[in-house]
């Protein structure tokens, strides 16, 4: 069987603040990708379709909230055959679980331009609490949020059967994101 690359979703980040105007991700200037190792070779794959809703006020980041939905079948591994494989039951099971989601439960200031974001990450029907650092900055009329979230794919049952073998595809996955959002 031809080996293929897996990129875990993750995804990831949206913010909502009481009283602040909501932001919508600018998909042309935003990205969510997963980085992992296949046979000890780094692989970086991007999700082509996702939506991030943010409510954010830089003066009151503790009131911010985020919600992100990623289309699990949109993972692009650079080859249509590989990309089709990760949508199958053994990996994301996109027919049954078309979206992976992140919903924030808390956002705390962590220094100038830095936040610590906590929330619920749901992949393939499994929900785990996560926390990760985010850099937030203003670029023109947009808010930009960047960060990385390390996860373990097997905690979300991504890679069933023979694909549980982490000597082929590593268990560790880093979800990288850059969300550029405007009101």
Structure description:
With 183 residues, this protein is mostly beta strands. The chain has a single domain, classed as Lipid/polyisoprenoid-binding, YceI-like (Lipocalin, Beta Barrel). Helix content is 4%, strand content 51%. The protein has one helix spanning 80-86, and strands at 22-25, 31-38, 41-47, 50-55, 65-71, 75-76, 99-109, 114-123, 126-139, 142-152, 169-182. It has an 8-stranded antiparallel beta barrel with strand order 1-4-5-7-8-9-10-11. It is elongated.
Secondary-structure element series? EEEEEEHEEEEE
Can you tell me the CATH superfamily?
Lipid/polyisoprenoid-binding, YceI-like
Strand-pairing-aware structural class: mainly beta
Q: Mean of residue pLDDT?
A: 88
Distance between the termini: 47 Å
Signal peptide: 1-20
Pfam family, one: YceI
Keywords: Signal
Protein name: YceI family protein
Short summary:
With 183 residues, this protein is mainly beta. The chain is built from one helix and eleven strands. Strand 8 and strand 9 form a beta hairpin.
Keywords:
183 residues; mainly beta; Lipocalin; eight-stranded antiparallel barrel; 1 helix; 11 strands; 51% strand; elongated; disordered N terminus; TTHA0802/YceI-like_sf; signal
Topology:
Layout: E1 22-25, E2 31-38, E3 41-47, E4 50-55, E5 65-71, E6 75-76, H1 80-86, E7 99-109, E8 114-123, E9 126-139, E10 142-152, E11 169-182
Antiparallel strand pairs: 1-4, 1-11, 2-3, 2-11, 3-6, 4-5, 5-7, 7-8, 8-9, 9-10, 10-11
């Amino acid at each position: 069987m031809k080996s293929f690359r897996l990129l875990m979703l993750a995804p990831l980040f949206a913010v909502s603040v009481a009283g602040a105007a909501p932001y919508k991700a600018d998909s042309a200037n935003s990205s969510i990708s997963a980085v992992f190792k296949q046979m000890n070779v780094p692989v970086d794959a991007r999700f082509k379709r996702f939506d991030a809703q943010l409510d954010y006020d830089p003066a009151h980041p503790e009131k911010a909230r985020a919600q992100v939905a990623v289309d699990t079948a949109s993972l692009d591994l650079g080859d249509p055959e590989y990309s089709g494989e990760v949508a199958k039951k053994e990996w994301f099971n996109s027919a049954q679980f078309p979206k992976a989601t992140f919903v924030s439960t808390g956002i705390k200031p962590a220094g100038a331009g830095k936040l610590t974001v906590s929330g619920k990450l749901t992949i393939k029907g499994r929900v785990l609490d996560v926390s990760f650092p985010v850099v937030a900055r203003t670029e023109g009329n947009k808010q930009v949020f960047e960060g990385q979230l390390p996860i373990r794919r097997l905690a979300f049952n991504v890679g069933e059967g023979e694909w549980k073998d982490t000597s082929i595809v590593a268990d560790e996955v880093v979800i990288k994101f850059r969300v550029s959002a405007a009101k």
